[in-house]
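Appendix B.2, paired examples.
Example (i):
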Amino acid sequence: MDGRLQSAAACSARLYPALRGGPMTYCQRMRALSWLGACLVVPLAGVAAEPQRIASQASKLPDEATLDEAPADAWPLFRGCLAGTGRSATTLAMPLRERWHRAFEKTAFEAGAVIADGTIYIGDLDGTFHALALETGTTRWTFRTESGFSSSAAISIDPAHPLVVVGDSEGMVRAFERGTGAVRWEYETNGEISGGPTIIEAEKDGPDPAAARVLVGSQDASLSCLALADGTLLWKHVISDQIRCAPTVANGKVFLAGCDGLLHVIDARTGKSKADVRIDGPTGTTPAAADARVYFGSEGGVFWAIDFDTAAVAWKVAPAANPQAYRSSAAIADGLTIVGSRGKAIEALQLTDGVRKWRVPMRGRVDGSPVVVRVAHAGDTAGTHVAAIGPHSLIAIVGDSAGRIVAVHASDGTLAWDFDAGGGFTGSPAVAAGHLVMASDDGTLWCFGGTK
């Protein structure tokens, strides 16, 4: 067993096959790994899901409407934006062509990349956090730790706080200066960080620096709210089981889909519980917020739509006779939610009622999360498949465990482009400035763009 498997917490996804022999659920398997390793999750039954108030600083959130897509020139969060929609304002010129790829020895990637100001930020399972040039893949700086990184990072795009924040497999959260890699602050939790942090930027022209904050969930069952400037703990909200998703923020609320079989609705300013919605099973997927609902799948193969004003189930799609888990977080595109599953498929469900619009078979499991982008034009290129694409239509892009990357039309699921990269993909795509970046479990980082 090589060095990248030394930490059970960092490499838990690689151990699924060894654990599938028993009837354990996904989150139970993760707990078993924690018991075997160094990250024991202390039972929290009976602990009230109320925040521990730590700091007395005033707490504000931006008053502007919730962002529903990432900006064209950046992919700052795991799902692009606060609402977790997986959608970008960038345009990809089709057909996509490989700009570069870079193979890193004796490591693997499970995290997706984040991108800002022409720099890619990503951590690997061997414990190196990388900053690389988007155009060339050359290293700008690295940070090395004994722990691995399975979580995506989060970038503050506010010039007042030029930081990138990431958590590792031993529960340490670090904020780096984006330009140099210098560590600005650290914050320690008691469990692996497997969901990307979410950064809430300060108000434009707002006087309160505490408005800029970081939300980070841990497998120690806590959600911590930290001041972005210095890592001060503002509040902590504790649930009864692991948190493996990234926090979604919409309408002043934080949404967490937990391993305790609940969707938690939390006040983003205070950390106090607003509602819990039972979802009949654990999940580690990140909810996507759109049209006053959040959308996500569970480990039991059920896909949920929850009204976030009333905390009521709007609809759910129950599993078939042979349910397949959702470990992919959903994306939003023009009245549809698009998601991958362990049943080797991606599918689109109508936001209004959950009716399946289309389903596309894949060669392998889809644990990564789709992204949705606009496309400009089509053409022919050797070694790839390209279908006709209308100007500025939307496509969904995702990779599978067989190493295939696909782009399909969001409207009907027809194939727009694909690429066989080898290896396999657990992490999710990142798109910014006309580029697509994906990292594989064989340690290769890929970058694609349109024809120059």
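Example (ii):
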Amino acid sequence: MTKRDLVILVAKQLGVKQNEVSSIVQEMLDSITDSLKDGNRVEVRNFGVFEIKQRDSRLGRNPRTGEEVPIPEKKVASFRPGKALKEWVQAGAGNRPHHLFKSDGTEQVENADAAPVESITEHRDKSDPPSPSGTQESLF
């Protein structure tokens, strides 16, 4: 499934214009990316955790020559599925149990300002400083 497929599916399911859903999906992806860039982890409860991990330097091997080659340390983006997602996949990934991935209204979105629905699809100014979120942002 591509991002475009996701936009079409969500727009159809919610009865919302595709350009509005596209803006929301893009903003969500931008927010995750910005948070990772700032060194934070992003947790979507029951779905999973996005984070940056440090890979240590190591010795690799050139497959053509067999010569040892030093591989420098680097940072990599990582996704670790949540418990509910893992259990659902292990069970055969039949019909998605909607209740596992939807908020029951008791979870709070940390570091989020309340915004009227009309402003949700407006693209935020990337020059704005990131919110002081510590080391974790929980989206759902």
